Amino acid sequence: MGQGNIEAAFSVVPEGSVTTPKGFKAGGLHCGLKKTTRHDLGAIVCEVPATAAGVYTTNVFQAAPIQVTRESIGAGGVLRAVIVNSGNANACTGKQGDADAYEMRSGFAAAIGVAPEHVAVASTGVIGENLKMDRVRSGIAELPSKLADSYEAADDFCQAILTTDLVKKEVCVSVTVNGRTVHIAGASKGSGMIHPNMATMLGFVTTDAAIGSEALHSLLRQATDLTFNMITVDGDTSTNDMLVAMASGLAGNEELTAEHPDWAAFAAGLRYVCEVLAKAIARDGEGATKLVEVQVRGAVSDEAAKAIAKTVIGSSLVKSAVFGADANWGRIIAAVGRAGQPVNPETVDIRLGDIVTLQQSRPIGFDEDAALEYLKGDTVVIHVDLHMGSGAATAWGCDLTYDYVRINAAYRT
């Protein structure tokens, strides 16, 4: 399905949120985990048992909430809620951290009257510090009263999951399935410790489509591979990355399977939601001033193109050059050449936007002033064409700035 057809398969819902799909409520509040008064505890709740699927970090050191959520979803592919805290990752906290994550699950389950195994848990923030559970307990007791299906309540949830993020990240689309309107919405957080192979982030997708857990997991994994796994800010993969999807089934459509005539349309909508959230994370990278997109074409395979795109987008030298508005294509081609993929050193083209800087691996004269102005923009697209095959991929990231060092030099203080 071409990009134009993908976009035609769904419609963006202005002011849509994770509470737009039927059956979902959300909310958030400040319970005292953050030093500021920003919200730091939130939840999404479904009024019926929701089909669920999850994708998790590949980091060997996985935070306690990852274990709890894996267990909850693995118990039957059904969730009623997810509870999230920011300000503390509850990672590398030993048996106490495990106990605290399970207490978050059981405590919130009791507060909303559902089984503990139907609650997922997510945490984000500083690694290696125990949760202040007295504050979490107080927040859990108050949180049910904050839940609503309004945009304002969804906004409270979005605010509650942020750490160094500057902006909230949300999107919603509608898709027609069996003649019925189905909504797919998402919210995410992420700004630092962002790298492919489950990019460092928390993401939450809600939909009112009827779909089985295995089918939902398959689509979620495919969408993740093309979106969240194609972004980077700093090359670090976190201990807490998690993407959870919940489907209420209240739209009333026939259950979606790979054989369903509207399967491709639903898949396109889900991929779009994930792509918007992934790009928003890349754009909001710590200290970032620009969204950088790398499009690789003409590779021997899609996998080769992905590897090359990730290498270019992750290059500190490329990212620094973009920050300085320096049209240093040499850094780009050097990254292409070290990606460990087949490349013909005689056939590479490179463009910065519409400005050709390299053709058939040979430098050509280009307008330096025009390149400078282009690189000063808030979105920079780097095109690489290898002229070797039909493989293609796109990766997203951001520039590397002085502020990134400043933010991360004092993250705990």
UniProtKB/TrEMBL annotation:
It catalyses: N(2)-acetyl-L-ornithine + L-glutamate = N-acetyl-L-glutamate + L-ornithine; L-glutamate + acetyl-CoA = N-acetyl-L-glutamate + CoA + H(+). The record marks 199-200 as: Cleavage. One of its GO terms (molecular function) is L-glutamate N-acetyltransferase activity, acting on acetyl-L-ornithine as donor. Substrate binds at residues 163, 189, 200, 286, 408, 413. It is found in: Cytoplasm. The keyword Nucleotidyltransferase does not apply. Its EC number is 2.3.1.35, 2.3.1.1. Gene3D superfamilies: arginine biosynthesis bifunctional protein suprefamily, ArgJ beta chain, C-terminal domain, L-amino peptidase D-ALA esterase/amidase. The record marks 124-125 as: Involved in the stabilization of negative charge on the oxyanion by the formation of the oxyanion hole. The keyword Cytoplasm applies. The active site is at residue 200. Keywords: Acyltransferase, Amino-acid biosynthesis, Arginine biosynthesis, Autocatalytic cleavage, Cytoplasm, Multifunctional enzyme, Transferase. Pathway: Amino-acid biosynthesis; L-arginine biosynthesis; N(2)-acetyl-L-ornithine from L-glutamate: step 1/4; Amino-acid biosynthesis; L-arginine biosynthesis; L-ornithine and N-acetyl-L-glutamate from L-glutamate and N(2)-acetyl-L-ornithine (cyclic): step 1/1. It is an enzyme of class 2 (transferase). Catalyzes two activities which are involved in the cyclic version of arginine biosynthesis: the synthesis of N-acetylglutamate from glutamate and acetyl-CoA as the acetyl donor, and of ornithine by transacetylation between N(2)-acetylornithine and glutamate. Belongs to the ArgJ family. NCBIfam families: ArgJ, PRK05388.1. Heterotetramer of two alpha and two beta chains. This is Arginine biosynthesis bifunctional protein ArgJ. It comes from Paenibacillus oenotherae. The lineage of its organism: Bacteria, Bacillati, Bacillota, Bacilli, Bacillales. The gene is argJ.
